[in-house]
Amino acid sequence: MKLFQQMLVAGAAMSLVAPLAAQASDSMNLDGMKSYGSSEKSTSRFDDKTFVNEVNEELATLKGRIDGLEAQQNDFEAGSFSDTTTMDGKAIFTLGAARIDEGNTHTQETKSNEEDVNFVYSYTLNLNSSFTGDDNLYVRIKTGNFDNSIFANKTFGTYLSSAKDNADALKVDKIWYQFPVGDNNTVWVGPKIENYYMHGTTPSIYQPVTKQFALGGNGEAYGASTDTGAGWAYKADNGFAVSSNIGTKSTTTTTGVNSGILTDETKSSWATQVGYTQDNYSASLIYNIKTNGWSDTYYHTANHGGTAKANAGLGNFNSIGLRGWWRPDETGTFVPSVSVGYDTTDYENATDATDTSDSYFVGLNWEDMFLADDKIGVAFGQPTKGEDETADPFAYEVYYSFKPNDSVTVTPAIFGGSDRNGTKNDDVVGYVLETTFKF
Questions:
Q1: In this model, does residue 331 exceed pLDDT 50?
Q2: Contact 163/147 with Cβ under 8 angstroms?
Q3: Alpha-carbon distance 428 to 99, whole Å?
Q4: Lowest mean per-residue pLDDT among 123-132, 257-266, 317-326, 395-404
Q5: CB-CB contact of 301 with 389 (8 Å)
Q6: Whole-number mean pLDDT of the chain?
Q7: d(CA 317, CA 327)
Q8: In this predicted structure, what is the pLDDT of residue 72?
Q9: Helix (H, G, I), strand (E, B) or coil at 106
Q10: Closest Cα to residue 196, out of 183, 171, 214, 175?
Q11: What's the angle, vertex CA 122, arms to CA 117 and CA 128, rounded to 5?
Q12: Which of 141, 207, 255, 363 has a beta carbon 3.0–4.6 Å from 125's, enabling a disulfide?
């Protein structure tokens, strides 16, 4: 019985004994009872020490339980992250197929591979660690099996935003460290980073299914590749931002040997962006200088850049990108958010007929139209095209995403294009059903 229960019982018992004792004194021989009591040896004693002993026993029991819980907690924490590290992730299942028609050059073997139904996946873990409360060490671990899938094909725009083609190997996909300098500056440095993570202004708010429509058109101005990089961004309190960053690759396509970082032979992408953002709209301009055959665009035709692209050793070019977006005050209406983009590029060491290219993009999103947190997406535009190309390439995608619960998103989509690769009758159409599990 617990100590406090004993105290309650003892108090109740004393209240009952008191009147009985008073009554017994009138009718009973108390002297005889005293003599009898003195002849018997008492086997137990109920006094103030009883309570002290009970309290000590209870405290000892509680202390033992607390020590046990602390030991279990220490064992758990030894195998977990520190309290300054967080992790989230997602798994994406992709089921679908695509058909590519390359006019009269389409072979049966290629056609057979491209029309097969694919069921592939990607798996991503994001880890963020802070050491001062304001800095962040970011690590992305990713795997997938898109390797032999049509959904990892950059040529015809069928490369999906969810794609990862590293043959089921779980690898570090991104890793960098960022820290503030003063109140308005941020600095990034890392062995695996892309330019667009270091921009001061978000170029587009359209959420794409195919990677070609990321960043307001993933072409020459914003196209990026993961490698060594560093950057800086200044964000003023009034919405103005300016940033500059560089990505480098230490091997070239001309010699295939390690050329170090920031040498004359190094592939590089140096991007400088100026932008202005408010709650409902944004506008930005970027100037990107790419050298030594840096090529990373997902939004292009086969001949963009012409002779400059054909010879990687001479592949230096300068690209200007304009971006803007606007969104309504409320979702659930027929008015969508709008993102637009336009790129123009000048190539060095190219013939007059192939020394420029351009592209454009339009992306529309409607949210909360039929269900809470659902989304309709429509995007279209012209992939990066050389001025000498006679075909008019066009690409598009349409999708609807909805959430059966807070952690699962289902997205059916259709995408494609006409003269997509810069040649007439180079048409493509694809269908996917993607299920995203976030945790």
A1: yes
A2: no
A3: 6
A4: 257-266
A5: yes
A6: 83
A7: 33
A8: 60
A9: coil
A10: 214
A11: 165
A12: 141
Burial state string for 225-259 with b = 16 or more CB within 10 A and e = fewer than 16: bbbbbbbbbebeeeeebbbbbbbbbbebeeeeeeb
Task: For residue 194, give the DSSP letter.
Answer: -
Q: What percent of the chain has pLDDT over 90?
A: 59
Residue span(s) of the chain under CATH 2.40.160.10 come to 86-438
CB-side exposure of 370: number of CA atoms within 13 Å? 8
By mean pLDDT, which of 172-181, 395-404, 419-428 is the weakest?
419-428
Are the beta carbons of 139 and 127 closer than 8 angstroms? yes
Closest CA to 320 of 238, 193, 221: 221
- Mean pLDDT of the region 398-405: 98
B/e letters for 327-336, b = 16+ CB within 10 Å, e = fewer, are beeebeeeeb
Question: Cα–Cα distance between 371 and 5 in angstroms, integer?
Answer: 56
Q: Rounded distance, CA 313 to CA 252, Å? A: 8
Residue located via tokens 């290629």: 110
Query: Strand pairing partners for 428?
Result: 100, 417
Amino acid of residue 166: N
Pick from 112, 86, 108, 81: which is nearest to 98 by CA? 112
Mean pLDDT of 329-334: 95
Neighbours of 116 (CB within 10 A): 11
Please state, as a whole number, how many other Cβ atoms lie within 10 Å of the Cβ of residue 126.
Answer: 16
Exposure string over 337-373, b if 16+ CB within 10 A, otherwise e: bbbbbbbbbbbeebeeebbbbbbbbbbbbbbeeeeee
Tokens representing residue 286 in the block: 């970027």
CATH class of 86-438: mainly beta
How far is the C-alpha of 35 from the C-alpha of 306, rounded, in Å? 124
pLDDT tens digits, 374-387: 999 999 999 999 98
